[in-house]
User: Which sequence fits this backbone?
C-alpha cells in the first residue's frame, strides 16, 4: 500500500505538470509564468523550493552528528538569504522586468560579465539539484527495503522530475509547489504530533538535546573560529542571493509587494518550519537509541525515514513519505528549471540563436537545455554517491562560486552608482584567483581563512579598485 501510494503521488505530480503545460505559449510563460502569480503562490514556491531534501534529511543528520553550530549555513544562512533578497533586492529587480537575474549583469555591465556570471550561477546548481535527486534515490531505496538500489532510485527520481518540469516550466513549478506545500505542512505536523506522543512530549526531547550540548551555536572567541562561523553564514546567506530560483519566484509575482513580501514570508516560514524535522529525527534518541547508534555509523540521513517505518502506523508512513516526496520534488523541479533557463538565455542564446529568433525556437532550446541539465545532475549525483558526499554538504558547497563571482557585482550594480564594468571584471578576477588556488591547497581553510570567504573579500577589493581606477583614468 505504501509503495502504491508513492506511485500514485508521482503520477499526480506528473499530471499537474502536464496540466500546467497548457498555460505555456512562449518562453516568457515558461520562465516567469507571465508574472501572474499571487502572493500565496509566491510564498508557497519560496517555501517549498527551499524546504528540500537537505531540510528533512540533511539538516537533521548534521544536527545529530554535530550540534546547532553545524546548521549555521542552513537553515540560518538560507533564511537570511531569502529575507535579505525580499527586503533589498526584490523590488529593484522586479521593476527592471528582466527574464533572468543574469540579464541584470548584461544591462548594468556588459555581455562578458553576463556570460561569466551565467556560467557560475549554472554550475552552482549542480550540487543543489543533485542533492534532491540523491534524496529521491534514498527514499526509493528505503521504501523498497533495498529492492531498488539508490542508484536506480536516483535515475527514477530524475526521470519523474524531468517529465513535469520539461513541459510545464514555471507554471508547473507554481501549480505543483502550491499543492506540495499543503502536503508538507499538514504531513509533517501530523507526524510530529504522533512522535511527540511516543517520545513523551516535546520537553523530554529538548532536555535530552540540552544535556548533550546540542544547542551550542556561537563560535569560540578566537579569530579562526569566528571567521569560519561568519563564512558559513555568508556562503549561503549572500551566495544564494544572485540565484535564478530566488529571482524567478519574486519575478513571477503579480505585483512588487507580492514579490517582496512573498519572498520574506517564505523565508521566515522556512526558518521556523525547519525545526520540525530536526525534532523528529532527534526524537529517535528516546524512541530507538539502538537505531540511532547503528545509523550514525552508517548513514545518519536514514535515521528519520527508518524511525517512521519502524515505529509509526501505516497512515503516518503514507503521510510522512508523501510529505517527503513533496519536499524533494518541489525543490528539484524549481532548481532544475532555474539553471537551465540561465544557461539557455544568458550563455547559449547568443551563440546558437539570432537576435530575431522566434519565441518558439527559444522555448524549444530551453527545454532541450532542461533535459541536458537533468542528465548532468544525475551523473553528478551518482558521482557524489560514490564520494560519500552528504546531502547537506552538497547544498553547502553549491553557493561558493556565486559568493565569489556574482554577489559583489550584483550589490555594487544596484547600490553603488560609481560601480563600473572594469570594477566587475576585477571583482570576478580577484575573487576567482583567490578562491580557486585556496580551494585546492586548503579546502577547509586549515588554520587560515575559508577559501570562498577570502575570494569574497578580494572580490570587494577588486570592485572598489577597478571602479575607482576607471573613474580616475576617465
Assistant:
Amino acid at each position: 500500500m505504501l509503495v502504491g501510494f508513492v506511485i500514485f503521488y508521482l503520477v499526480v505530480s506528473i499530471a499537474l505538470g502536464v496540466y500546467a503545460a497548457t498555460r505555456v505559449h512562449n518562453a516568457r510563460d515558461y520562465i516567469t509564468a507571465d508574472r501572474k502569480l499571487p502572493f500565496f503562490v509566491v510564498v508557497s514556491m519560496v517555501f517549498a523550493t527551499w524546504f528540500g531534501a537537505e531540510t528533512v534529511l540533511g539538516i537533521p543528520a548534521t544536527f545529530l552528528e554535530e550540534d546547532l553550530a553545524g546548521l549555521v549555513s542552513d537553515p540560518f544562512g538560507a533564511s537570511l538569504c531569502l529575507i535579505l533578497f525580499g527586503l533589498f533586492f526584490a523590488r529593484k529587480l522586479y521593476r527592471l522586468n528582466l527574464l533572468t537575474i543574469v540579464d541584470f549583469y548584461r544591462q548594468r555591465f556588459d555581455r562578458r560579465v553576463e556570460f561569466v556570471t551565467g556560467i557560475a550561477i549554472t554550475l552552482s546548481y549542480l550540487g543543489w539539484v543533485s542533492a534532491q535527486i540523491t534524496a529521491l534515490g534514498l527514499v526509493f531505496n528505503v521504501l523498497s527495503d533495498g529492492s531498488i538500489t539508490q542508484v536506480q532510485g536516483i535515475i527514477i527520481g530524475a526521470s519523474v522530475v524531468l517529465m513535469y518540469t520539461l513541459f510545464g516550466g514555471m507554471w508547473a513549478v507554481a501549480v505543483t509547489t502550491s499543492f506540495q506545500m499543503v502536503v508538507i505542512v499538514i504531513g509533517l505536523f501530523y507526524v510530529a504530533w504522533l512522535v511527540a506522543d511516543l517520545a513523551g512530549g516535546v520537553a523530554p526531547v529538548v532536555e535530552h538535546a540540552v544535556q548533550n550540548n546540542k544547542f551550542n551555536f556561537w563560535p569560540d572567541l578566537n579569530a579562526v573560529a569566528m571567521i569560519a562561523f561568519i563564512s558559513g553564514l555568508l556562503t549561503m546567506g549572500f551566495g544564494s542571493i544572485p540565484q535564478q530560483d530566488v529571482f524567478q519566484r519574486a519575478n513571477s509575482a503579480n505585483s512588487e509587494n507580492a514579490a517582496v513580501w512573498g519572498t520574506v514570508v517564505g523565508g521566515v516560514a522556512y526558518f521556523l518550519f525547519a525545526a520540525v524535522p530536526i525534532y523528529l529525527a532527534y526524537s529517535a534518541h528516546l524512541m530507538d537509541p539502538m537505531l540511532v547508534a547503528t545509523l550514525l555509523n552508517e548513514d545518519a540521513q536514514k535515521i528519520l525515514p527508518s524511525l517512521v517505518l519502524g515505529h509509526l502506523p501505516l497512515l503516518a508512513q503514507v503521510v510522512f513519505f508523501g510529505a517527503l516526496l513533496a519536499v524533494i520534488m518541489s525543490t528539484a523541479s524549481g532548481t532544475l528549471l532555474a539553471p537551465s533557463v540561465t544557461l539557455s538565455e544568458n550563455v547559449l542564446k547568443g551563440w546558437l540563436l539570432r537576435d530575431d529568433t522566434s519565441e518558439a525556437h527559444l522555448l524549444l532550446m530551453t527545454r532541450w537545455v532542461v533535459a541536458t541539465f537533468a542528465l548532468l545532475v544525475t551523473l553528478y549525483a551518482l558521482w557524489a554517491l560514490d564520494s560519500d558526499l552528504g546531502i547537506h554538504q552538497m547544498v553547502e558547497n553549491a553557493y561558493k562560486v556565486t559568493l565569489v563571482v556574482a554577489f559583489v557585482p550584483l550589490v555594487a550594480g544596484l547600490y553603488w552608482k560609481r560601480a563600473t564594468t572594469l570594477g566587475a571584471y576585477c571583482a570576478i578576477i580577484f575573487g576567482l584567483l583567490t578562491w580557486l588556488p585556496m580551494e585546492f591547497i586548503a579546502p577547509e581553510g586549515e588554520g587560515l581563512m575559508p577559501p570562498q570567504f577570502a575570494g569574497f573579500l578580494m572580490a570587494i577589493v577588486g570592485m572598489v579598485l577597478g571602479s575607482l581606477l576607471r573613474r580616475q583614468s576617465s
User: Anything to note?
Assistant: The chain has two domains: 2-393, 416-474. The two ends are 72 Å apart (CA to CA).
